[in-house]
Amino acid sequence: MRQIVNEWVDKAEADFRTAHRELPIKEDPNYDLVCFLVQQSVEKYLKALLSNHQIEFEKTHNLLFLLEKLIGILPLWEAWVPSMKTIKQYYVQFRYPGASAEYEDAARAFDIAKGFREAARKELGL
Hints:
- This protein is mainly α.
- 67% of the residues lie in helices and 0% in strands.
């Protein structure tokens, strides 16, 4: 595996682990952070997958844009579009004042990220 792919995976894993640690906290949990980190982890796994297939991408946080590039070579990954729309919604919605994530939001986002992580790691041979 190329060095850049390993670096993307390492960063994706760091975000995933931190979200995993934060999610079960009972006293003063930060569910907004869980949603943010989940999006970051998925984004970095998408970038690892694209890098692994030597597909160039611009600097972006747009999961759907990255996924569309991946679908070009892995058409079955289109099944992830609804999940990316959910994570994208949580990522934007809870970053600014006016809305806060609840446990259910964070748990749903984390479950999506967990499934995506498993699929991405399998595709990367990890």
